Amino acid sequence: MMELATPGLLFPALCMLLIAYTNRFLALAGIIRNLCKEYQSARDRKIILQISSLRRRLRLTQYMQLCCMAALLGCVLALFSILMRRPHYAYYSFSTSISLMLASLLLSLYELKLSSDALNILLADLLERKA
User: Fold this and answer.
1) I need a labelling partner for 58 at 20 to 30 A (CA). Which of 23, 47, 88, 124 fits?
2) CA–CA distances in Å: residue 39 to residues 42, 55, 57, 58, 80
3) What is the four-CA torsion angle of 45, 48, 50, 55, rounded to 10 degrees?
4) How far apart are the first and last CA of the chain?
5) What secondary structure letter does DSSP report for 52?
6) Sequence spans of domains, the chain
7) What's the rounded Cα separation, in Å, for the pair 44 and 55?
8) pLDDT (tens digit, 9 = 90+) per residue, 57-74?
9) DSSP alpha helices (H): ranges in the chain?
10) pTM for the predicted model, two decimal places
């Protein structure tokens, strides 16, 4: 039978992930606001492309947060199932929670790749201007 401590182990990890994802969301929102202001003063097509890429990254970050919150809910349901002496439901809730946490981490990895690709494009653009 699963003990209360088992699903409880995920709580700190999920809370830290939520904080990290929220910080990422806020950083992206700030960048988008700055680019929108910049676009209003200088109607550069590259800014529109950057905003489009940031929109995709923002959506991914929202999905990461959603998966993480659902994983946290799964942990709570697993704890509740243990307390109600329903081990089958506890295992199901806990395994779902772990799966959602994995999905969240995979989305984070993909968003990180998009972020790196965007930075490499900016760096390449800077090198072209310098040459």
Assistant:
1) 124
2) 5, 15, 19, 19, 51
3) -170
4) 66
5) H
6) 5-126
7) 17
8) 999 999 999 999 999 999
9) 5-8, 10-41, 45-83, 87-130
10) 0.84
Cα separation, 51 vs 28, in Å, equals 10
Q: CB count, 10 Å around CB of 56?
A: 12
Q: Give residue for tokens 């972020």.
A: 115
Judge whether 71 and 101 are in contact, CB under 8 Å. yes
Rounded to whole angstroms, the Cα distance separating 123 from 128 reads 9
Token pair listed for 86: 């329903």
Taking alpha carbons only, the member of 112, 108, 113 closest to residue 67 is: 108
In angstroms, the CA 28 to CA 40 distance is 18
Res 108: pLDDT: 96
